[in-house]
Every structure is written in C-alpha cells, then in structure tokens.
Amino acid sequence: MYTFLVLVEIIVCLLLMVVVLMQSSKGGGLAGTFGGGNFGTVFGVRRTADFLTRATTILATTFMVLSLLINIFFLPGKGKSAGESVIQTGQSSVPPAQIPAQQTPAPTTNK
Prior knowledge:
Blueprint: H1 2-22, H2 29-33, H3 40-43, H4 45-74, H5 86-89
Helix pairs in contact: 1-4
C-alpha cells in the first residue's frame, strides 16, 4: 500500500508540474515556448485558463492529502516507539570518539 501511494504521489507531482508550466504567464508560459500557443484555441482562451486553474487546484490538493496520509499512517510506526528524541534526552547512540593523549617529544641533547 505504501509503495502504491508513493507511486501515485510521484505521478500527481509530475502532472502538477506540467499543468503549472502550461499556464500562461506574462511571458506566455511553457505553452508558448514549445509551440503550444494554439492550445488556447482548442477550448477558447477563457476555458483553457479555467481548466488549467481547476486542474492545478485539484492536483495540489491531492498532492497535499497524499503527503499527509503517507506521513501520518505509514512512516511513524517503523518499529520505533514515540518517546523522546535523542536531542531531548541528551544522549547519543554513538560514543564520542577516542582522542589519544597528546604526546610531547622527548628532549634532544646536542653533543
């Protein structure tokens, strides 16, 4: 189930990127760059803007809901208890590195 939801999340993410880039901005957007300037004539300019705006809203909402579902129901219970964090306890699971004592060189005598 986790893998399926992550796969759907990736597909929604890619679709969201395409829909956002297809919206026309002051510079014409991606539609004008790749010759899709006639995309607005299929539905009419106003209907195309409404369609892309609605698609962006639906895909963004789906993206956020799926992200929350994946994080709330699948990630926290990976065998860990929901206790205090390592930072809160002040303990580290990794022991501090052993630093060797600094050796001073033996004095040399000149003859």
